[in-house]
Amino acid sequence: MSVIEDVPSPAPRPQPIPVRIGAPRAGPSRAVVLRKDPWWAQPLVTGLGLLAFVVYATWAAFRNGHYFVGLDQARNYLSPFYSPCLASNCPSAVRWGPITPAGSGFSPALIILIFPLAFRLTCYYYRKTYYRAFWLSPPACAVADAGSTSTKPNAFRKRYTGETRFPLVLQNIHRYTWYFTCIFAVLLTYDAIEAFRFPGGIGMGVGTLILVANSVLIWAYQLGCHACRHLSGGNLKKFSKAPARRWIWTNLTTPLNKHHQLFAWLSLMTIVVSDLYIYLVSSGAFSDPRIF
Amino acid sequence: MAIDTGPAPSTAPEPPSDAPPKDLVMHLWRGDASGGRFQEYHVAPQEGEVVLDVVHRIQATQAPDLAVRWNCKAGKCGSCSAEINGRPALMCMTRMSTLPTDQPVTVSPMRAFPIMRDLVTDVSYNFEVAKLIPAFKPGPKDPDGLHRMAQVDIDRGQEFHKCIECFLCQNVCHVIRDHEENKPRYAGPRFFVRLAELEMHPLDTLDRRDYIHEDMGIGYCNITKCCTEVCPEDIHITDNAIIPLKERIVDSRYDPVAWLGRKITGRPTPLRASEARKHTGAAHAQPPAAATPEPGDSA
Amino acid sequence: MTDTERYDFDVVVIGAGGAGLRAAIEAREKGARTALVCKSLLGKAHTVMAEGGIAAALGSVWPEDSWEVHFRDTMRGGKMLNNWRMAQIHALESPDRVLELEEWGALFDRTPDGRILQRDFGGHRYARLAHVGDRTGLEMIRALQHRAVSIGIDVFMECKIVRLLQDGTGAVNGAVGFWRESGRFLTFGAKAVVLATGGIGKAWKFTTNSWECTGDGMALALWAGADLIDMEAVQFHPTGMVWPPSARGLLVTEGVRGDGGVLKNRDGERFMFNYISPFFAAETAETIEEGDHWYTNKKDFRRPPELLPRDEVARAINSEVKAGRGSPHGGVFLDIASRRTPEEIRRLLPSMYHQFKELADIDITTTPMEVGPTCHYAMGGIRVEADSEATTVAGLYAAGETAGGMHGSNRLGGNSLSDLVVFGRRAGLAAAERALEIPGAPQVSEAQVVDVTRHATSYFDNEGAEDAYAVHRELQETMQALVGIIRIESELLEAKEKLAVLAERASKCAVEGNLQFNPGWHLALDLESMLAVSNCTTLSAIERRESRGGHTRDDYPGFRPEFENVNMITRLVDGEYVVAQEPKPQMPDELAKLFEEGAH
């Protein structure tokens, strides 16, 4: 159109943004928190919530027992921590094993949990939560990063590289963890269906309801994942050319993604509740009430 | 930080309820590059006021040289960004009635940027980044000279076009707020919104993914979502712009299956960042003027 | 004190709203070294506040639309006082300018077949306004801003121009201004200067305008010897917010009415049906039923009177309030809640929804808005040559709100955004052509620069208690009360005297503090412009002894034939502002015919 269309040779490497560094900053020092609301409450509560889960999950993973309620108790429940059932001591009616040798003492949960753990660790929502609550980077909005207000140039955590370097650059594998955990979501759904199997036909106990709720919430979390939203249609430039994917993106993955935080917590809770319930029933603390 | 307490606090008992309402106590940041402090001002409250009204009243009656940047006073231009009681917000859209009045209201400038004076900061960093955004490059028009676009294809972009460039997201982003040394290699949330808008534009033909990774430093973002929290236009910056960009970069750089898919199907490989660099404003800077004599070189 | 920075360019554009950006883009694309100077940050100009849309006869919703219809609507809306050639160029070129914005990344709302959706607005026969919800100005300024940045235009932000520089022949060859941040002065040498500084709304108390709209361009042109035209024509937008007090005057887009909103008085009556003037009677609905049908069938029905041009609606609201039928806070009710579903309202008018929710705590999907007239736009401005936007001073061009003539005595909604890009482009083009013809570097006179900087800093030497904020407040009260929506000779004469007193006081303003980002000082300098232009507005208003468009005289109601064909020209002669009547350009017969074919 005019004199300014093309540029012959661009810079071969990224050019630094020409910006003045080190000039006196506006306002009081960043070390002063001016916020008057209880900004510390959110990182504290979410941090404690995550910690509680880690403690419980560690205990549950090493427990290596009481993770199913078998036909001997006229039920067919399997804890999500131990699904798929790989061990030789699995209830025979259920599933895939045995893979671990009988009596080896090695908890199959330690293998199984790698996948959901990797999925949730690299989840965009959990990343936000633990960067805020544990890394304190930042603890809350407009509250300085831990270490960043130190006056010493080489102070611990003075520098920040985000997710540009190892190990945090590995967050980019999130979509692969999503692929794998899709398998687990299917398995948990299978477990929930199996939980309707009662001696002599179909039935339903409280445990069935818990496992069904768990699998539903796992799917809500799984399908609301940001990587899933991208793959389902977010990567399109023109929705109008792909009506099916547009439908999925508009009516399924995007609405679920809006509540990703909610489902992240709810599904985390139902996993714990499912496992704890099965442990208690299996260990004889009480028996599972049958609904029909 | 020194707080000038102004007149001694009154120890008198609460006034009777039919007395005029108590004065507002405002702590406004006053200062320049040589230093500053909060200065206390007392003003009578008025119905329905926003913080900017109170600041203007102080300026017109008590502090004529109080520097504050503003234009429209209607939440449309994004000039009056500040930190009100420590929270980044627009002064013109923060009603006084939403703030606790039993304690002073602090108004400080955006702390991620260098000070100019009082509440005004040097936001030139943002305009430097703007020059480095590879421009929109539309494909050919239809034979009748029009571009056709479906509304569903521009809904995402229209959300991003709501941006009023108040730079509150840039201010609150800890990547540059708390680690200033990252400024030369990090574009910041406002510009990820801009880049997302271009990448999702149904007519655009330029691939900026490598450029966003290499030059714009999106990897520095750790998606802690403060930009979304402070956005006065309610743009879902993190969920709708930054994360989709991160996922696009996974497509172009970190996904072996996608790479293999491109090899097999012959789909275009991601454009090199150096190619995108050709389309920035910085690459089109005007030549300097021919040397001219100083005007008279006089007195 | 005269230690100034010096920059030489081919073209210097003053003002970075829609017109300034478009002019700079054009000049740069034509190969001129171009600078863009603006008083605020880039992208904050008053254009961002435009809401409803940009008028262009694209015909994507109503194929019957054409430039002739648009031209006719514009001329009739301006009560035939428009410069016919500007109105013609505007109607002819605005579709191309809108499509060009799309080429630069703008995303207008779409029709189902993927073309640009157009919306109804007052005075436009067909749905004609390309729009993006109710934030069209923002969309436009971003598209232009991104284009300007991507082609490397040099932008001088937060820089106020104090005076233009002229060579021995009177041709403009530069400008002097200062950085608002540091107070440091800078001199531009330029072969052509484009003024695109917008309007003068800040001289009134209740206004939709932002702080920048202080008439700088008009004043700069006046001081350089250029003519202003029809300064009495000031548009009061019928619907501004009236409550809360701090939001008084904020714009409520005409899009609310275009999308079905209706005006009601305290008794719930749609009073606009009582205010249909004979000039528009043939094309306006007489009954509520007819008006309601028009939204979907424009061929067989006439438009409801809520969509009369703005001057008519503003006067009607004014009369209702005066007659005691207003709303509690002194406005009338604008009701869209009963006409559209909440979802539609939030989709069509998101920023109105947001504005009322945040500032007035009112949910417009359930509650009617209270609205009243507010100062909105100056139809008058710098007199320009229609094709090139050249002013009467060589080397000086003007475009946008700061230029006059295009809109006559009243502007139709949506015609301002198209005005900006149509004439911004032409001004940039003409300026670049002139600049590229002049060899060598511009030579500016150091003595002039020294004079300007001395004058600008003289406020720091003033002693006494006069303060710019107080003078500004009084100016606003004077203009609001005496040169407002309804005018009368005695009050205009009173205003003239008061302005003389205020000018005297303004020159004595004492400024506290130093040169660094000092709003008190900036206001003192802005007051010079506001007072100069307010003077011209008052003089023109006294001289036009009739009521026409945005100029309503209580003592001379209705059109008068002796003013039908004259423009009011104001200029500076020997240090005095004077007004003169000059004949308006007559349109050729083939265009005049468009007005003889009856109402359609």
Report the CATH topology name of the largest domain in chain C. FAD/NAD(P)-binding domain
Q: Percent of residues of chain C in helical segments?
A: 25-40%
Low-confidence stretches of chain C: none
First-last Cα distance of chain B: 43 Å
Number of helices of chain C: 17
Task: Name the overall outline of chain C.
Answer: globular
Number of DSSP strand runs of chain C: 18
What form of chain B results from the Cα inertia axes? elongated
CATH superfamily of the largest domain in chain B: Alpha-helical ferredoxin
Alpha-carbon Rg of chain C, integer? 23 Å
Count helical runs of chain B: 11
The strand line-up of the biggest sheet of chain B is 2-1-5-3-4
CATH class of the largest domain in chain C: Alpha Beta
Q: Specify Rg of chain B, calculated over alpha carbons.
A: 24 Å
Fourth-tier CATH superfamily name of the largest domain in chain C: FAD/NAD(P)-binding domain
Mean pLDDT of chain C, nearest integer? 94
CATH classification, class level of the largest domain in chain B = Mainly Alpha
Percent of sequence in beta strands of chain B: 5-15%
Structural account:
By secondary structure, chain A is an all-alpha fold. Chain A has nine helices and four strands; from the N terminus they run αββααααββαααα. Chain A has one domain. Chain A has helices spanning 41-63, 109-112, 114-122, 124-135, 174-194, 206-223, 226-234, 243-258, 260-282; strands at 68-69, 77-78, 197-198, 201-202. In chain A, helix 6 runs antiparallel to helix 9 (260-282). Chain B folds into two domains: 24-121, Ubiquitin-like (UB roll); 124-283, Fumarate Reductase Iron-sulfur Protein, Chain B, domain 2 (Orthogonal Bundle), CATH 1.10.1060. Chain B contains eleven helices and seven strands. Chain B has a five-stranded mixed beta sheet with strand order 2-1-5-3-4. In chain B, strands 6-7 form a two-stranded antiparallel sheet. In chain B, a hairpin with a 2-residue loop joins strand 3 (81-84) and strand 4. In chain B, helix 3 runs antiparallel to helix 6 and helix 6 crosses helix 9 (237-254). Chain B is elongated, with a radius of gyration of 24 Å. Chain C folds into three domains: 5-54 and 79-108 and 135-235 and 376-445, FAD/NAD(P)-binding domain; 236-375, Alpha-Beta Complex (Flavocytochrome C3, Chain A, domain 1); 448-559, Fumarate reductase/succinate dehydrogenase flavoprotein-like, C-terminal domain (Methane Monooxygenase Hydroxylase, Chain G, domain 1, Up-down Bundle). Helix content of chain C is 35%, strand content 16%. Chain C is built from 17 helices and 18 strands. In chain C, strands 1, 2, 6, 7, 8, 9 and 16 form a seven-stranded mixed beta sheet that branches. In chain C, helix 1 (18-29) links the parallel strand 1 and strand 2. Chain C starts with a strand and ends in an 8-residue tail after the last helix. At the B-C interface, helix 1 and helix 3 of B face strand 1, helix 3, helix 4, helix 11 and helix 13 of C.
